[in-house]
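This section describes the prediction task in plain terms. A model, or a person checking by hand, is given the sequence of a single protein chain and must write out its three-dimensional structure as a string of tokens. No templates, partner chains or ligands are provided. The sample shown here is typical of the held-out split.
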Amino acid sequence: GSINIASPIKMRVVRVGKGAVLSTILDMLDQATAEKPAISRFADRVASRFVVTILALAAIVAAYWWFQGDPEWIAITVSVLVVTCPCALSLATPVAMSAATGRLTQLGLLTMKGHSIETLAQVDHFVFDKTGTLTEGRMQLAEVEQLHDEYDEEHILKIAAALEFGSEHPIAKAIIQAADDGEIVADEVTNQSGRGVVGKIGGQSWYLGSHAFISALSTDHKVTQNDRASAIWLANDQAAVACLSFDDRPRVGARPLMQALQSQQCEVSIISGDNEKAVQSIANDLGVAHYRSGALPDDKLRYINELQDKGKIVAMIGDGVNDAPVLAKAQVSIAMGGGTQLASVSADMMLLSDRLEHLIDAQVVARRTMRIVKQNISWALLYNLSAIPAAAMGYIPPWLAAIGMSASSLIVVGNSLRILR
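The expected answer:
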């Protein structure tokens, strides 16, 4: 259906195809997805080969007893086929995974890709984005520091809001909320991912972004670092005009999650595009020793590659557009439920509840699931290896073979359902 039927929409294409930042991010996303290693399906491979082996064995057993002249050769052959029906072996993995998926859904964690539970159980390094992931992502404007007498605070906020109009970033939302009325409209707005935004207002170019972004414009735009953790600067072609500072709080449950992961011998890192003070502040609050600040999308992807080159099984948790390539590259990725759609599409799991403490229970469920899968496969193999000789020698009648096969399958299903407790 139609979304906008009352007001005209004016569009001007300023960059197309491969030149756009979003296109670059999507290219990185495609590359990372293609490089993700496939998770083996051991039980399925064994079951498929097992069927062929059993059919050959049944033919040999039938031929042997027929040549012996035993009138029960058909019954013995049927017993071999029935008792070795690979139901338990085939059910060993999917039933456990289905139960685990249901349990994780109860915890508010939606599983979108089949390998994620198996991989989550093996993760030994968790990488977290900061804003919107470890923090609430509800930025509030704390202070507007005027650097130029020509512009008052109200005008500064309106210019900044015009540049950030339509952005999903938490800082952009805080600026738009603080500006109240959007009387000013910016044209030719372009977003330089991880750095800032550029646009024209009344024919004049305006820049809104990080300390490094504004400082790099010219020698007239040198600005001193703000004492606050999260801050951005507004400037035009002539000089820096204002510094906007923001406050954000850690999510409830973030610190217990970090403590729980580290107590389980898992390493934890924080990587963010925010300035060093912002990232250092949240890292200190949460007790995390490893962090990287000022990271662009390719920096984040490079960091994941470094960890994987060291043999780490990496889980990435993020929520923004910039996190999409990294989410795709990590062995298992988790997107926050309140994050962007691109991040959600590239993730293996989605934390719908937005409660970080649920990740603790999720890893426990994943590890328990893999233990139960191994138990199921071991039981199925042990049962078949024990039952095949007895059936082939004629000690198991068809009715008992049917009971044994059914009981074996029920044991596997019952064992898998323990995950739901």
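For orientation: The first strand starts at residue 109 and ends at 111.
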